[in-house]
Amino acid sequence: MRIFSDAHFEFIAARRKAYVVSGILILVAFAAMFGNIALIGSWQHYGVDFTGGSLIQVRFDVPMDAGEIRTALSGTDATDISRIGTENDFTIRAPVTEGASVDEVRQEIEARLDAAFGAGSSELLEADLVSAKVGDELQQKAAFAIIFSFFLTLIYIAIRFELRFGIAAIIATVHDIILTLGFLALFRVEIALPTVAALLTIVGYSLNDTIVVFDRIRENLNRKGGRKEDPEKLVNRSINETLPRTVLTSGTTLAVLLALFFLGGTVIRDFTLVLILGVLIGTYSSIFVASPALLEIQKRFGTGDDKEKERARRRRKSANVPV
Description:
The chain has 323 residues and is an alpha+beta fold. The protein folds into two domains: 2-39 and 135-308, Multidrug efflux transporter AcrB transmembrane fold (Up-down Bundle); 53-130, Alpha-Beta Plaits, CATH 3.30.70. Helices cover 67% and strands 10% of the residues. It is built from ten helices and six strands. A four-stranded antiparallel beta sheet has the order 3-4-2-5. Strands 1-6 form a two-stranded parallel ribbon. Helix 7 (193-222) packs antiparallel against helix 8 (231-263), helix 7 runs parallel beside helix 9 and helix 8 packs antiparallel against helix 9 (269-301). The longest helix is centred in the last third of the chain and has 33 residues, at 231-263. The chain is elongated.
């Protein structure tokens, strides 16, 4: 991190280029989500957790390939087959039609596996059913959890810093969530409960990185002469001062996530992929979105200091004290 110990990068000067990049990515994100509505009837590729259906775990006597199982079940409604743990264990996700039971789906899958690989070649370990109504409720609760986290964040940062800091942090976090959802829509990544957990983790990570930068901005503002310094120079200097910590945190986090992505298996791959994307976007937004947003808010609405000075001026005027 010594190469960043005395950094003097002009991040704020490049903010307009960052606006263009973010704007293009946001347009692509919305295009992908609206495209999914036209193609698959939903803006995201929801899994059984949200759409309702059966979740069946199967263990084979010998190592199997997901492609072979998919071929054997080609006549069923199985939508997703993924390996869990060993080469013998798989998870089969399938929708359940109105009035059908999970036992009927289980029997059909079991019959087709026996026909393809021989009787007794597989064992169905577990079968769970998620109704469509429960899936709808989970979608609503997931959206509420994200919105509620924004609300709490605004309150926390407004108390710890100032309201303008909280609004800037929310703008950056919404930016991160939109880009992440756009990526998921573009590549049709299945949205399951672990994916929602990853999205909430991204909110926390992005806010943590943003608060570190905002904390340094506040420290520099409170130093002697800080309030008189050019705001753009002060914010840019604060970003550079926290850059070693930002790069170190993001780098070590990505190293762990990449190891999980390549070595952790298919069960946590989507979860890890969302986190990797979130770390990259969150690091970018804390520098090129949150801090510039803070400057724009200050330019348009001023600061708390400006309002306090105006109130003091009015009090002196009402008391007939020369201003």
